[in-house]
Amino acid sequence: MRTLQLLLMALLLSGCAIKPWLKPYERARLADPVMNVSANPIAEQYIDHVHEARESMRGAEGSAGGGCGCS
């Protein structure tokens, strides 16, 4: 049982040592504008502004923490 636990732990920890799956020349494809989540950034900024106005607070989008003051 102990051997099995050590083998499982070694297997899980070896996953952290895997080299990146992407080659440096393949990473340029990820910077393509097609990969952006937002199709129209100006419209998204407007929607964010409307959301902030309705929520009566600034930073309603992407802020960390809650209303208790903790972050």
Primary descriptors:
71 residues, mainly alpha, lipoprotein, Lipoprotein
Which SSEs are present, and which pair or pack?
Elements: H1 2-14, H2 41-55
Let me know the largest β-sheet. none
Estimated structural class = mainly alpha
Alpha-carbon Rg, integer: 22 Å
- Gross morphology is elongated
Mean pLDDT value: 74
Keywords: Lipoprotein
Protein name: Lipoprotein
Domain DUF4266: 23-70
Overview of the molecule:
- The chain is mostly helical and 71 residues long.
- It has a domain at 25-57.
- The chain has 2 helices and no strands.
- Pfam families: DUF4266.
- This is Lipoprotein.
- Keywords: Lipoprotein.
In short:
The chain has 71 residues and is an all-alpha fold. The chain has 2 helices and no strands. It has a domain of 33 residues.
